[in-house]
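quick one, 161 residues, struct below
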Amino acid sequence: MSLLPINNFTFKTKLKEDEIIKRLSKLIKPEGIYFFSTNKYAGEIRGQTFDIHRNVSTYDGLIPEINGVIKNDFDGTAIIVKMKLKIQIEVFLYILGIILGFVFFVNTTQALIDWKLNVWAVVSFVMLLLAYIWSVIGFIIERNKSIDDLASLFEADIIDD
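---
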């Protein structure tokens, strides 16, 4: 179980698999550094799978990585999508959590031994809590933008998440 946000969605559409791939191809640009790009997403399509993320002019680590699989269904097409934080942000948050958790543990232990409130225990706990809340809220905001974009692109409804 991950403490960091990961969301799975299934979009259901009446569009055919070829039309979805065609629309995705128009929407994304290949990975790389491109200034003034008009494409809304960057990434790649490999057969019936795609790995993309929203294209923004500044680096925003909370923009989710979007991995998807396109599958034909008996009454249309299903697009199974997994959204998660970029690996660099996950590693940073885990390292930050370990460091702040260690500081909290050491200072709380010392506070219990001395029977005095240790301000560093409180500060480290608050910093850990704020970092977690910041990452989850930021991810949710960016995830919702991507969900809206994909739902309109695929002319689809979300059938489960």
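The mean pLDDT is 86.
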